[in-house]
Amino acid sequence: MAHVSNRTIFFFVLAAVCIVLLILSSSNRIAPVEGAAMQVGRPFLLAFSEVGRLFSNVITTARDLATLRARNNQLQTVVDTLTIDNLRLKETEAENERLRSLLRFAQLNPNYDFRGGQVIARVISKSPSNYLASISIDLGAEHGIKPGMPVVTERGLVGRIHKVGPLSSTVLLITDPSSGVPALIQRNRLVGVVSGRAGALPVMEYIPQDADISVGDLVITSGLGGGFPKNLIIGQIVEVRQRDYEMFQQATIRPTVNFDRLEFVLVITNFVPLPGEPGEPDSVG
Amino acid sequence: MIVAVGLGVLVQATLLARIRLEGAAANLPLVIVVCWSLLRGPLEGALWGFAGGLLLDLVAGLPLGASSLALMAVCPLANLGKKSIFPGRSTLPVLLVLLATPVFGWIVLLARAMGGLAVDWLIATVRIIGPEMVLNALLTLPAYPVLRWLATQTRPTAMEW
User: Fold this and answer.
1) How far apart are CA B12 and CA B27, in angstroms?
2) Which residues from chain A sit within 8 angstroms of residue B72, using beta carbons?
3) Which residues, including other chains, have CB under 8 Å from residue B150's CB and lie 6 or more apart?
4) Quick one: residue A277, left, alpha or beta (phi over 0 = left, psi -120 to 50 = alpha)?
5) What does the mean pLDDT of chain A come to?
6) A19: chain B residues, CB-CB within 8 Å
7) Is-above-0.95 flag for pTM?
8) Confidence grade of residue A280 (pLDDT, cut at 50, 70, 90)
9) What is the ipTM of this complex?
C-alpha cells in the first residue's frame, strides 16, 4: 500500500473541514458563530474603512484632474442655466407649498410613508469578493434591522438586507447577478425585472417586443411581488437591445446610485417583504 | 504570518475592493497565498489559505469555507515552481497567480451555485476572472518581494506530528 505522508493527510483534513463548514453555512446551521465573528471584526473594518475611503478619494481626485478643465467649462454653462431655473423653481416651490396646505397633498405623497421608518447607516466595507456585490453597514439586529429590508440613498435603490449580525449587516446590491427587482418604466408603466450582471451594468428584462422604450427612460420599482416598496428610483435606460428572434426586449440600466462612492445609506425599516420573497434570505444574527 | 493574512483581508475589504478594473478588484489574499506557497511550500500556503479564506468569507458574506477551499486548492500549483524553466525571480509568481485566479474563481462560483444561486459561468469568467487575472498579476509584482523578505524574517511553521 502506498505511503501517504502526514502533510498530505493534514491538507485533506483542512479541505474536509472547509467542505463541512460550507455545508453547515449553506444550511444556516452556524449562523450564531458567523454573527459573533462579524461582531468581533466590526471595529477593525470600521477603522480600515476610513483609511480606504481616504485612499479612494485621493485616487479619484487624481483621475478627475485630467478632465477637470473641460468639465469646468461644461459645468459653468450648466450653472448659468440652473441659476435661471432655480429662480423659477423657487417661485414654483412657494406656490406648491401653498397648494399643498390647501389640498393636503402631503398625505397623498407615497414617499412620506417610509420617512418615519428610515434608519441611517454607515457603509463600513465593500464586498472584498468579486463574486458577490455587497456592502457591509454598521447597523444590525440590535438596531431593528431584519433580512429583506430595502436599502436606499437619496438617489435611489441600493439593494436589500442580505445577512444580519448583531451590530452589522450585509446589503446585497441590485448589481449582484442574484438580485432581481420588479420594476417599471416611469413614462409608460411597462413592467419588467431589473437583474444585476457580473462586471457590467444591470439590465431590465422581460419587456415585451412591441413595447415602446427608449434611451433616457427612468426605471422605478413596481412594488409587484411585495419584495420592494413601489416608486423607488432604480436608474435610467442607457441602451436598448431588441432582436426579432427573441421573445423580449432588454434594456441596460445605469443606476442612479453610485455604488463606488456609497458612504451612508437609508434602511427602510417599516417595510416588510411578503413571505417567500427573495427579500428574505438567510440570517446569521 | 497570521497578522499578514488578517491585514491582507482587511486591506482587501476596505481598500482594494474600491479600486476596480471593469468591475473587478484585485484579490490580495489569493496573491499572498500563492506567493507564500511558492516560498514556503504548498502545505504552509494551504494553512494560511484556510485561515485567510475563513476571514474573507465572514467579511464578504460568502458561505463559510468557500474561499478557504478555493485558496487551498491553488496551493499545489506552487509545485510547478520546482520544475520551473523560467529564470526570472518575479516571472514565476506572476504566472502562478495568473493560473490560480481562474481556479479560485471557479471554485467560489461552484460554491455559490451549490448554494442555489444562479451563476452565469461564461459571463463571470470573461467579465470578472479576466480583469481579476490582470490586476492580480500586477499586484504580485510588489507583493512578492515583500513576502520574500517576510519569509527570510520568519521561521517555517512546524506542521509535522
Assistant:
1) 7
2) 11, 14-15, 18
3) B1, B4
4) beta
5) 79
6) 65, 69
7) no
8) very low
9) 0.77
